[in-house]
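Session log. Operator J.P. requested a structure for one protein chain; no other inputs attached. Running the standard single-chain path with token output.
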Amino acid sequence: MKKITVFDAIMVCLLLILCVVTLYPFYYALIISVSDGLRVQQHNVVLLPQGFTLQNYHAIFLDDRILDATFISLARTVLGTALSLIVIGLCAYSMSKTYFKFKKPLFIFFVIPMYVSGGMLPTFILIHDLHLMNNFLVYILPGCYSTFFMFLMKVFLETIPDNLEESARIDGARELKIMTSVILPLCYPVIATIALFVGVGQWNSWFDALMYVSNQSLHPLQMVLQAILTESQNTADKLLLMGMNSQKVTLTTQTYTMAVLIVTTVPIVFVYPFAQRYFVKGMTLGAVKM
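Structure written below.
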């Protein structure tokens, strides 16, 4: 058995401290969201919830907009991520091939917008001219391509041995078959990484809704929760009039805000562990399977 050294003990302690410092803010937000508002105002909530209640979450989901907004956010996250992976994957696969004739001019075409943006006003005019205003597709189409993620996948594809493709061509496989049956299974780590970043970006995005969508029925969850958050004080007053703020349970702006924070964060927290296992798994998959 390996002897535990002083250095090992110090490293374990430092890692434990780092873990606590990282996780405690999220834990603190959680216990505040399920605590009585009066106890929170008295600074009595530190490690455990005081006056446990779910009234903050009940107050959030009393808003009829939440269900529709959740569906919009889920739809844009799933569809937007899927389309981004398709577009980025096709571009990266083409750019990773040395025999592709238009590789250099397309490389310049892709790089220039990465460093020189058109700006907000030209983008707004373009979205308007494409008739994407108040359209669900405005959440998906403008951001379906990313030069950074394309380069990330391109570099990964260039590390795959060429003999796999050559073996597939000898067996009569065409380009599409090679990409889907040979190359794609090897790309699970980079696909999972890109999907996670794109998915989180889609889920958290609200600025595009603010700029291009005035129809409230198309607003994503982040936009609706932001509106609810700005109305939190009025909401607390309404709940008081409705009798939900009784002598036993008090809802405050702080507890309500923390509940909104948890609602927007929890889906990503639960999805990440399932995506993480693909980061390494994909390296052991893939071969010439016809």
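Operator note: The chain has a mean pLDDT of 80.
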